[in-house]
Amino acid sequence: MFNLSIYLERNFNKEYKEARKASRLLQEFAEFKGLERSLIHEMCLGTELNKIGYVSLPKVITCKLKYNKQLTLEERDEYKKYPLRGIEILSRKIQKKNMIILLL
Fold first, then answer.
1. CA end-to-end span of the chain, whole Å?
2. Three-state SS string across 21-57, please?
3. Is the distance from CB of 62 to CB of 12 less than 8 angstroms?
4. What is the pLDDT, as a whole number, of residue 28?
5. What is the mean pLDDT of the segment spanning 19-32?
6. What gap in Å lies between CA 90 and CA 60, rounded to an integer?
7. Which pTM value belongs to this model?
């Protein structure tokens, strides 16, 4: 997960900073409500990685997003797929981690 965070920070800095800010606010609120630390950690991690699907977007689309340019209809359709791709990326990471644990 750490490598994904670094990639987001370097390539989608604005989105990364927004996610970190949201994560800190979530953490403060969850602590105020007395939630368990493990649950707070998972919630914050999910908040920080909510745009992980961006890594699968073509450069043309990410450049347009970065500079607030209009996307074509095809690009918009491609953009709408990023949440599902994020789930797929995280699922593969978790499966890989679980395989390593099983091999140990």
1. 20
2. HHHHHHHHHHHHCCCCHHHHHHHHHHHHCCCHHHHHC
3. yes
4. 97
5. 95
6. 23
7. 0.69
